[in-house]
Amino acid sequence: MATGEIAEVDPATLDVGAAVTTSGRVSVAKMYRPHPPTLPFTPVQLASLDEAITVASRTTGLDFSVYLGELGSDTRARAEELHAATTRPAHAVLLAVSPGERVVEVVTGEESHRRLPDRGAKLAVMGMVASFKEGDLAGGLLSGLRMLTDQAGHAPRA
Amino acid sequence: MTIVETVLVFALIPLAIYGVITLLTLRPKATRIARYRPGQEWGYAPVWWSANPGGLPADHHAETAPVSGRTARGGARGNW
């Protein structure tokens, strides 16, 4: 059939939910299937996580990010690799959580380590682990971000 | 009304209604959010969230110097 030619469709051959309209086009109705969620979080939890990360980055001037997924056998090396891949590694604070391996890693860069000593990071990790033990991933991440924000304090005035 | 009719109307019909409602509560919801429990498999694709750039001051990402090698200086780890 050449381009622009009009094909005639016999309405009897169409499936259920399809009809030939007056203009000659075929209109097909499709069943709506709701998508299952891609993460075990409610929209409210996702929104508060997004807000917590943004507020943490804004108040401290550091780049907070949360990685949630597989970290492989050497979790620390993988988390440091991810940290090196950030846009500003010196200011980056990476929270890498692997629920499959039940590991949480906090990685800080040069400037973020100065602002956020290992002792403060350890305290935040202990708070997060307490929530993760109960199966509350979103709550743990939220409290961890808040503790790290409080530890790092406000961004120095330029 | 015979005794059989009485039983049918006053016992069987209410029981049928209860049964239908019970079955409705048992059906799996397509958009159900599975709860994470410690120790279970994590079958989700990895995600990496960073701050919403709209909520940050304009000069937040001022410096972007490419670096090579190890950038990590510290941090902490834990498991559960």
Which helices and strands appear, and what pairs or packs with what?
The complex is a heterodimer of chains A (158) and B (80).
Chain A: E1 18-20, E2 26-28, H1 43-60, E3 63-68, H2 75-84, E4 92-98, E5 103-108, H3 110-115, H4 118-133, H5 137-152
Parallel strand pairs in A: 3-4
Antiparallel strand pairs in A: 1-2, 4-5
Helix pairs in contact in A: 1-5, 4-5
Chain B: H1 3-26, E1 47-50, E2 74-79
Estimate the strand proportion of chain B. 5-15%
User: From the alpha-carbon coordinates, what is the Rg of chain B to the nearest angstrom?
Assistant: 30 Å
Low-confidence stretches of chain A: none
The SSE string of chain A, one letter per element, is EEHEHEEHHH
> What characteristic shape of chain A results from the CA principal axes?
elongated
Mean of all residue-level pLDDT scores of chain B: 85
How far apart, in Å, are the first and last alpha carbons of chain A?
70 Å
| Strand line-up across the major sheet of chain A | 3-4-5
**Biggest sheet of chain B, open or closed, and with what strands and sense?**
none
The largest sheet of chain A, given as strand count, sense and whether it forms a barrel, is: 3 strands, mixed
**Oligomeric grouping of the chains:** heterodimer
Question: What does it look like?
Answer:
In chain A, the strands form two sheets. A three-stranded mixed sheet of chain A has the order 3-4-5, with helices on both faces. In chain A, strands 1-2 form a two-stranded antiparallel sheet. Chain A is elongated. With 158 residues, chain A is of the alpha+beta class. Helices cover 42% and strands 16% of the residues of chain A. Chain A has five helices and five strands. The mean pLDDT of chain A is 90. Chain B is α+β, with helices and mostly antiparallel strands. Chain B contains one helix and two strands; from the N terminus they run αββ. The longest helix of chain B has 24 residues, at 3-26. Chain B is elongated, with a radius of gyration of 30 Å. The N and C termini of chain B lie far apart (67 Å). The model of chain B has no long low-confidence stretch (mean pLDDT 85). The chains are: A alpha+beta (158), B alpha+beta (80). Chains A and B meet through helix 1, strand 3, helix 2, strand 4 and strand 5 of A and strand 1 and strand 2 of B. Strand 5 (103-108) of chain A pairs antiparallel with strand 2 of chain B.
